[in-house]
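In response to a reviewer's request, we include the raw inputs and outputs for one of the modeled complexes. The two entities were modeled together in a single run.
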Amino acid sequence: MSKSFIVEKYKLSRNPFPPAASGIDVERDLYIPPKWEEKIREYYETLRHGKGAKAFPIVGEYGSGKTVLLKGYLKNFSENKRIKTIYFENPGVKFYDLANTLLRSLGRYEFSKALWERCKEFLTEKGQKLLFPMSFVQMLSTLRTKTDREGKANELKDVIKNKLNLTDDDEVAYKLGLMVVETVSKPYFSYRDFIAGPKGSLVAEREESKYFKAVINAIIKTYGVEGVAFLIDEFEEIAFSKRITRKQTYEYLTTLRSLIEISEKENLWIILAMVPEAAEETKKMNIALWQRFTHQEKETILTLEPLTVKECKELIKWWLNRARAEDGLKEYQNRLFPFPEDVEKVLKRPEIRLPRPLVRIGFFTLARAEKEKVEVPIPMDFIEKVINELYAPQTNKESENGRD
Amino acid sequence: MKKGDTLWMRYVDFNNVKDILHLVYENNGKLRAGTLEQLAIEKGILVKKEDGKPLTHSPRYHYRKVMEGLGLVEVKEKFYYLSQDERVLKFTELTSFKKSLSQEAKEILREIIVENNDCKKYFFDVFMIEDTYTLEDLRKEGEYIIVETKSMREPPTEKKMEQKKNNENIRKKKKVGAVILKNPSGKAIELKTQDEIHAIYWGVRLWALKLEITNEILMSFAEGRIIYPVNPNFSDKILINHLLNKIKADNSDSEWVILHIPTFIKEVALSTRFLVNKIKNFLEDLKIKYPLSTMLIPSSTMFIDIKTPFERQDSAIYNSYLYKPEIGYISHLRIAKGILKEVKT
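The model returned the following structure tokens for the whole complex.
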């Protein structure tokens, strides 16, 4: 059987670039420019020993690679440092939105079970000793009445507070105990569990921060990690998704402040990805808070800028390699082929030297070249035409239209 | 003006004023209020743009009163005459019926407005230290002013929320809607009544804005609207120097400098007094002239909306951003430091 044009001519098993670059599956390694990695390592080393918040923003425009950096790099980076990562996308402006997302992502059953396992060694076993230690399910099955559950919640409270030292607050400890024992009747979290005040809520009224701290400590102890990292993507998107009220602005700042405060005291890392205008506005709304977040003169802000020519080429090669794993194509790995070696000549405009535009350009150039059976190397003017169709250069039409 | 009288200034379109003035000129001393209005309706001047229907009594009345107040016409025994003021005669010569106002004609109107006693007392005086001044003086020596509204005097959101949360000191809303025009030097004009607000805030202020005597910046609700006298002698070179100094002042190791466009516009507008639109054109042209060293960074409109709780203020806030139909609102301009070598000042 004859080989397809793309294999035969371009030495690719398929078009490796995803058509919609914004929807890339980033739960895997992706190309990250070395300078970004360097900055992250530098911030990690500086902040982990410091007294301030273990937090920094990643600021970049749409398509600059923020999500890729959070999901594709920081997740692995943190987990290699024994830091459990929790990824939040559009978490919401209120504090309990975060608590809700956090615990739902862990799962009530899993979290309660892990917490109980941790408490178990300190709980006094009543009655006859069992040959095999009691499992979580068995323990839950013993809690038939409300009195049983309240009794067990109180026992857990003491362990949570005095043995595990997850919190120094009785009510917060009791609420965590309650979360464990009520798993039998409520295996899933519901939104109302996190709204402080209402009957049956898990969060003690006016103790949202303490509750949150206790949960962070619980995660650290139950999952056997050294810290927790919140990777928060588009924090502002939901906060500002429609006309924001002054109350919502307040809630946004309060949530940010609470996170920063917890991060200063506990081993909680906060990495927020935001667009430049969100950073600008947050800074203006509360300059002191922004300085705590970016550590004043240390200026821990990772700004994602246009890639250099070398980085652009590396990114293109990285994607081309995805379609060169098969025998016969391997020898073409780490080559720009079928793109010309001097492809940088058409990548001069900074707005296209961002990861998302580059991936789009890669996809459409290859797709069109394959369709039109363009010979290799793909001519520069062909690539330029695709680029200009996707990202039209600014013209001076407006200038000619009567500006004085 | 006698104390207790209502103010005569209201928002009017000066193209219509000019056309009515031409009707008076052509029928000098022959028209009374009713017949002048009727003729202006027949000629399609005092009509609504949307449907061509005649304007109601109030706006028709205000057009006449504005013309009288500015001294464009004189009323003798209820008949309308063209003013004999030289400037008005020249204005009539320089303009034509149903043709738009030339720059020269606009300049005459500007002078008339700035030198009008009521306009001075209630609006232009607050920009100036001296009480006697001309349009030129206003342009050269006028300070910027800030408009303070009722909502801005309420406690900051965070404080207010804390108070509510603690259930303490819940402040009752004061029903005072005064608009205060404040000069940073301390001088202020307080517009207390609805009449003053209509006449000055929605009247003279908008005349000055439309005729480019003043220009406005609204960066955020908290900061308030800034009004400044316009310097008409625009210069690209001054802006380039301003920009280059900004780039030189950046000490980071990055090869790029990022500029928040509304902040840049505000800084430049307050120091040079150039029109916001001219500064915006300059920034847009920069992208065209130096495509490899500049980059426009779009913002979602939600970030613009958050700056004020009032939807009606949004359009003024949007004005501090660049707008490109194919991209949307632009909040930042990224400039390569290498532009320093490219630009010839």
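As requested, we also summarize the result in words. Residues 172-176 of chain B have pLDDT under 50 and may be disordered. Chain B touches chain A through 39 residues (CB under 8 Å).
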